[in-house]
Every structure is written in structure tokens, then in C-alpha cells.
Amino acid sequence: MSILTIILNILLPPLAVFLKHGVGTTLLISILLTILGWLPGVIHAFLVNN
After folding, report:
1. pLDDT tens, 25-38?
2. Which end of the chain is less crowded, N or C, counting CB atoms within 10 A of the terminal residue's CB?
3. How many domains does the chain have?
4. What angle do CA 45, 20, 14 make, to 5 degrees?
5. Rounded to whole angstroms, how far apart are CA atoms 22 and 39?
6. Rounded distance, CA 33 to CA 3, Å?
């Protein structure tokens, strides 16, 4: 995992997921989790982008 990916995972989780996986259900889950709370979005981004 690059430094840029780590920074994006922390600051903008949906963007990091989008850059890795594109538009799909993973992105929608990431957006939903980020809206519900920033920390769940970050955790999901790290798990998906691992």
C-alpha cells in the first residue's frame, strides 16, 4: 500500500475505494459508512484496499 493510498484512506475513504475499485457496490458501501461515521468509512477503506 502506497503512502498516497494510506493518506486517502484516512482523509477521503470513498475516493480511495473509487480509485482502487471504480464504481460499484464497494463504493456505495464506503459512501454509506462514511456518511454514518467517518471511522467506519476509514476502517472499510483500509480493509478493501489491503
Report:
1. 999 999 999 999 99
2. C
3. 1
4. 45
5. 21
6. 23
